[in-house]
């Protein structure tokens, strides 16, 4: 699923004249940005040499925030979409980089600094985060539910097929944040601060996000 998303993002970037000199020629630039942010600002699996995770986490703690980034090494099915929620961190990251608190000056930090306010890339991150919140995340939680049988999953796959067919013509419904899958007695949508941020009304981002979706 992530591979298909990357192809779509690459096409979107080409249409919007987003180019890069990155050595990751087969990846989308938004994917590279997400990877770089995780590499720089996650303590457990980040880059100890070029990253600045400890100071970044101290900065977040000083403003009563937490680090919602997830290591990029997790399940390939979903991790790109999960970290698409890095759009939530864009303000914190940009403030951190411009406040003088970041002690590192290297290619990794420089690359993030030049990309973190790019509206096209942020719209792609938002689109990925929206797909995770409404489709990938809920589906994953349904699959993990022992009370839902293999045969019962057929109904959810059918809902997914019909929804994707509809969204392929008009994805604007996704911007509303409405729940797609329902399981009696289970909270599979997981509304949190990332959800709230993704479904705020971004006047300048909505059109690009819709195009990316």
TrEMBL record:
GO molecular function: 3'-5'-RNA exonuclease activity
Record's keyword terms, sorted: Hydrolase, Nuclease
Name of the protein this chain belongs to: Uncharacterized protein
